[in-house]
């Protein structure tokens, strides 16, 4: 079976002298091209080819502008030039051209300058006077100013100083590879490599005004907003935090340390409580030297902070800043903020609070406009045997049986194709094996005995407590048929238990296998070695704590991800490691198998999620765009999409086919630690350190519910098999059950709500809460619904 095509777009893999290759997206402004895709070849059969870089189309930077993009990645070839260079005849075009040439000369980009001059057919004498910064006339300086605010260029080494007379603070964003090391992040709207050229990033904080006036500027704006009408106040209050951050960083960068300290102390208490962690990091940046290489600083600087404001509120703000001639704040608004203006009524404080809180503000509305196929794929038609009590089949757990009963098409499902489902062949999926078909038959039989849950019929909960887990339990997973449970531990081991009377057995040695009659009906039983039977198997191989574990749907394999930067694939036939997937450079926080097997996803500290196939040693897709660690990953039930939750307080939905980010959900006030899709694929539930569970409509890209009740991090979420109940497990030692049917009924998803984000969340958490179940002192790490809707929960007892 063919894996996903490994080259959806052409990707330049640029080899640096040190470190692994870095993926460069195919075009400017295509999203954050992050992470390094270098892997070592230790897979079973090396998957070749370039890795298709995935990048978020609705990324975090400013809108790509169709202006002159100057790339200075290599001095060997001529740099790209605009297709249609301006004619030298028109005076305005000529001045613009002179400004560009002057900028290129200052930036020491000789080759680009020569190429542009040749393209415009300018004589050497015509621009000879534009070499020195002081010799440009005032009109040329204005043209340079206007242009420099739009040109994205990259200079190897220190950033170019602004030409005299420019009012903009040189928005120089890195485009190609600067001579520094590579790193993650996005500057302006241009995808960059792993470490952006810090001097270019910081150059925007050039001296802009009297440092002693900063407090006055900020106080003046604060007074104006607080005295404005209630309807505008809530929207304009969103400006406080990003302006505070950028004004503080500007003071620090220009070495006004005392003014910066005074500014911070005076205004940091005014910021919203959910920014406290960011402010703590910010307060440690007190010198210019601290800013270089600081991830948080680069996040603030390189991703435009997105604010969604009504047109009336925006006009009010603009008028005030122009009347006061407050250029300092206006420059920051234009350079560092992306204001998403909508027509209509301003939003209320409650509506805004529901959506804000992420590291880069809200998501732009365009980010959630693309079509998502959230429907389920059509189930293959499988004939179900008439014999209901097929004990032998149950004992074999999906393995081929001795006698095959007559088949009849009584139970074959002839479902119509879901109109919202993706085409069946949109991505290549593995074909069903005989054992898979038998397992599906078992599943259908179990379904007939499934308990219908609801407010009047709550599930029982069976809690697996890990006692004396002094090794430190860090991850848990349960097989779909609830027969095996795996635990990942901080001592770098993975332990697998059988929770049925059937013990775990390994395959016999090769010498013994040669004696077995391969034609016998029970060959799969004979190859197992009874001497190795035990309830527990320990898997050794990782060299750091194991943070993620996932069983394959057919129960033949187990994935584990670790602090050592690898994902390992283990065989549950031999209980040995088959492959170590090395693509992440830092700890891998989570991994999960696709519902159809074969594909799996991983996410880690390098801020990137990767899509893999079990038979390829390199990732098939790299999902780059998050501004902080990817803490949790989850496949959509139709396997065409992957959801990732991050410490940047956003959830993103990625298209597996092309690697694009198709949804960005903001609203959590802390790092996200749990995700789950509803069984029908239409909704997503997310849990975070803020103790809230948020519900999202994937099709419309809207938040549709908020469940409050937990007092600590929500570590696990699961929908019941038919989607009637949502179970949540938390570090507050409780499992809570919520009425999912009621939460999703009568949703407001009209066009106006979708267009403006005017969401009205009902305060009905207590009505939706069906039950709270306390443990004595065991944080809930994992939840699972069995095929008959019994809840299994797991966690390690932690004595107080």
How would you portray this structure in words?
It is found in: Nucleus. InterPro entries: LisH (IPR006594), TFIID_NTD2 (IPR007582), TFIID_NTD2_sf (IPR037264), WD40/YVTN_repeat-like_dom_sf (IPR015943), WD40_PAC1 (IPR020472), WD40_repeat_CS (IPR019775), WD40_repeat_dom_sf (IPR036322), WD40_rpt (IPR001680). Residues 384-395 have a biased composition (Acidic residues). Residues 407-418 have a biased composition (Basic and acidic residues). The protein has 21 helices and 40 strands. Helices cover 23% and strands 25% of the residues. With 800 residues, the protein is α+β, with helices and mostly antiparallel strands. Among the domains are: 210-362, TFIID subunit TAF5, NTD2 domain (Serine Threonine Protein Phosphatase 5, Tetratricopeptide repeat, Alpha Horseshoe); 461-749 and 769-795, Methylamine Dehydrogenase, Chain H.
Topology:
Layout: E1 12-14, E2 22-24, E3 52-55, E4 69-70, H1 91-106, H2 110-120, H3 138-148, E5 152-153, E6 186-187, E7 190-191, H4 198-202, H5 214-227, H6 230-236, H7 240-253, H8 257-267, H9 276-283, H10 288-291, H11 295-302, E8 305-310, H12 311-323, H13 327-336, E9 337-342, H14 349-355, E10 384-385, H15 391-396, E11 407-408, H16 434-448, E12 461-466, E13 473-478, E14 484-489, E15 494-498, E16 504-507, H17 510-513, H18 523-526, E17 528-534, E18 536-539, E19 546-551, E20 557-562, E21 566-571, E22 576-582, E23 588-593, E24 599-604, E25 608-613, E26 621-624, E27 630-635, E28 641-646, E29 650-655, E30 661-666, E31 672-677, E32 683-688, E33 693-697, E34 702-707, E35 714-719, E36 725-730, E37 734-739, H19 740-744, H20 751-756, H21 765-768, E38 769-774, E39 782-785, E40 791-796
Parallel strand pairs: 3-26, 4-5, 8-9, 12-40
Antiparallel strand pairs: 1-2, 6-7, 10-11, 13-14, 14-15, 15-18, 16-17, 19-20, 20-21, 21-22, 23-24, 24-25, 25-26, 27-28, 28-29, 29-30, 31-32, 32-33, 33-34, 35-36, 36-37, 37-38, 39-40
Helix pairs in contact: 1-2, 1-3, 6-12, 7-8, 7-13
């Amino acid at each position: 079976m063919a894996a996903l095509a490994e080259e959806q777009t052409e990707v330049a893999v640029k080899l640096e002298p040190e470190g692994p290759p870095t993926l460069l997206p195919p075009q400017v402004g295509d999203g954050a091209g992050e992470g390094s895709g270098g892997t070592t070849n230790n897979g079973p059969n090396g998957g070749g080819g370039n890795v298709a870089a995935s990048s978020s189309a609705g990324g975090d930077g400013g809108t790509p502008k169709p202006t002159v993009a100057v790339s200075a990645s290599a001095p060997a070839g001529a740099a790209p030039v605009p297709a249609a260079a301006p004619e030298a005849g028109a005076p305005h075009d000529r001045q613009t051209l002179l400004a560009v040439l002057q900028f290129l000369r200052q930036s020491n980009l000789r080759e680009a300058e020569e190429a542009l001059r040749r393209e415009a057919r300018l004589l050497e004498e015509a621009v000879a006077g534009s070499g020195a910064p002081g010799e440009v006339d005032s009109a040329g300086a204005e043209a340079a100013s206007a242009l420099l605010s739009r040109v994205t260029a990259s200079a190897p080494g220190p950033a170019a100083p602004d030409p005299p007379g420019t009012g903009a603070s040189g928005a120089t964003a890195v485009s190609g590879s600067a001579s520094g090391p590579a790193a993650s992040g996005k500057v302006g709207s241009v995808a960059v490599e792993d470490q952006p050229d810090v001097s270019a990033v910081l150059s925007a904080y050039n001296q802009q005004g009297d440092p002693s006036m900063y407090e006055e500027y900020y106080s003046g704006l604060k007074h104006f907003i607080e005295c404005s009408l209630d309807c505008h106040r809530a929207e304009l209050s969103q400006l406080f935090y990003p302006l505070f951050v950028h004004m503080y960083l500007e003071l620090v960068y220009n070495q006004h340390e005392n003014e910066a300290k005074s500014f911070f102390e005076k205004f940091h208490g005014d910021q919203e409580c959910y920014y406290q962690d960011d402010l703590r990091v910010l307060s440690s940046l007190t010198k210019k030297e601290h800013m270089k290489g600081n991830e948080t600083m680069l996040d603030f600087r390189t991703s435009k902070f997105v604010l969604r404001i009504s047109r009336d509120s925006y006009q009010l703000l603009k008028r005030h800043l122009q009347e006061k001639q407050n250029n300092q704040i206006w420059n920051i608004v234009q350079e560092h903020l992306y204001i998403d203006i909508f027509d209509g009524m301003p939003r209320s404080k409650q509506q805004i609070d529901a959506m804000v809180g992420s590291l880069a503000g809200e998501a732009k509305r365009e980010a959630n406009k693309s079509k998502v196929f959230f429907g389920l794929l059509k189930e293959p038609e499988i004939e179900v045997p008439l014999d209901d009590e097929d004990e032998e089949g149950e004992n074999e757990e999906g393995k081929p049986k001795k006698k095959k009963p007559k088949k009849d098409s009584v139970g074959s499902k002839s479902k119509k194709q879901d109109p919202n489902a993706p085409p069946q062949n949109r991505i290549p999926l593995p074909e069903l094996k005989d054992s898979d078909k038998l397992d599906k038959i078992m599943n259908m039989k179990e379904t007939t005995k499934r308990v219908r849950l609801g407010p009047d019929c709550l599930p029982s909960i069976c809690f697996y407590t890990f006692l004396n887990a002094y090794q430190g339990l860090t991850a848990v997973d349960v097989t779909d048929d609830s027969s095996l449970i795996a635990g990942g531990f901080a001592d770098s081991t993975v332990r697998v238990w059988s929770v049925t009377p059937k013990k775990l057995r390994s395959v016999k040695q090769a010498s013994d296998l040669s004696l077995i009659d391969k034609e016998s009906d029970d060959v799969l039983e004979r190859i197992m070695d009874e001497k190795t039977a035990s309830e527990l198997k320990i898997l050794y191989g990782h060299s750091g704590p194991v943070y993620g574990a996932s069983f394959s749907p057919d129960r033949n394999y187990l994935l584990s991800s670790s602090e050592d930067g690898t994902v390992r694939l283990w065989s549950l036939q031999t209980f040995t490691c088959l492959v170590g997937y090395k693509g992440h450079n830092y700890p891998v926080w989570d991994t999960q198998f696709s519902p159809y097997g074969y594909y799996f996803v991983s996410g880690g500290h390098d801020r990137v999620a990767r899509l893999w196939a079990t038979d390829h040693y390199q990732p098939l897709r790299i999902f780059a765009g998050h501004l902080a660690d990817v803490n949790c990953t989850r496949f959509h039930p139709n396997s065409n999409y992957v959801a990732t939750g991050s410490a940047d307080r956003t959830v993103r939905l990625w298209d597996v086919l092309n690697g694009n980010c198709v949804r960005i959900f903001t609203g959590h006030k802390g790092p996200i630690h749990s995700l789950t899709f509803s069984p029908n694929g239409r909704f997503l539930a997310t849990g975070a350190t803020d103790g809230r569970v948020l519900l999202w409509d994937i099709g419309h890209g809207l938040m549709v519910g908020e469940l409050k009740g937990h007092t600590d991090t929500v570590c696990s979420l699961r929908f019941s098999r038919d989607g009637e109940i949502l179970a949540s497990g938390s570090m507050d030692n409780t499992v809570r059950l919520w009425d999912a049917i009621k939460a999703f009924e009568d949703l407001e998803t009209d066009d106006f709500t979708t267009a403006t984000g005017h969401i009205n969340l009902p305060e009905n958490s207590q009505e939706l809460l069906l039950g709270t179940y306390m443990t004595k002192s065991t944080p809930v790490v994992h939840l699972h619904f069995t095929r008959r809707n019994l809840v299994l929960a797991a966690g390690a007892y932690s004595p107080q």
